[in-house]
Amino acid sequence: MYDIVLIHGTWCDGSVWGDFATKLESMNIRVHTPSLRYHDLPYEEVTQKVGSLSLTDYTEDLVTLVQSLDRPPLLLGHSLGCLLAQMVAERTPIAGMILMGPAPTADIFALYPSMVRCFIRHFLRWGFWKKAMPPYKEEFFRYCLNQQEDSLKEPLFATLVPESGKVYTQMAFPFFDKSRAGYVDFSRISCPVLVITGSEDKMTVPAIARKTAKNYTDSVLVSLTGADHMYESGKYQDKTLAIIHYWLKDKGFL
Fold this sequence. Notes:
Elements: E1 3-7, H1 18-25, E2 30-32, H2 43-49, H3 55-67, E3 74-78, H4 80-91, E4 96-100, H5 113-123, H6 137-144, H7 150-157, H8 165-172, E5 193-198, H9 206-214, E6 219-224, H10 237-250
Parallel strand pairs: 1-2, 1-3, 3-4, 4-5, 5-6
Helix pairs in contact: 3-4, 5-6
């Protein structure tokens, strides 16, 4: 039985996976759902602690988890979690990667109009590079949940917590980051890779997924017609799981 580590995205914690994780477990996979550092604390505590955390801080925590397992696991990332998955895979052996709506590595253009509009309120704040970035409801509904039922939106938004301003500065403006945290040496990653995108994903547009897939020699890119950014929840969950199941079986993980 393989282990799979699920790495959540911006504003979320490990609880976001919900029945997505349960359904993965039913495929005879041992599932781990860590929260990024401080993300499982109460909202105000996250606000106080998360602002200056870096991509490297998140990655080091995940590498520690991966290396504690009996053998190299699968990694499944969503959004920001995809960038972190690739940073982990660069540093320690893994069996395979599944990247859903990947955030861009530093070599990939990130400033698409819908993505800028999603986060511009944060970047217009003085000191954005060290401040916690709160979840913005209007933008979250318009650019992340744009194809979901209204009944999903409010309950999901209520679970969100602030994100690191430093992390978003490193992603959006990698040329200013002296640590070069968001750069990945793809030659150090030889595992099979599944990349999933949605035709209506406005938070990480399909062009980023296409470029991500091209960075790997053993990659498969699947586009879900009509899907927005929230692959693990709502109306596209089962289709996403079906794609993952087929790929896992094809690659011999099941």
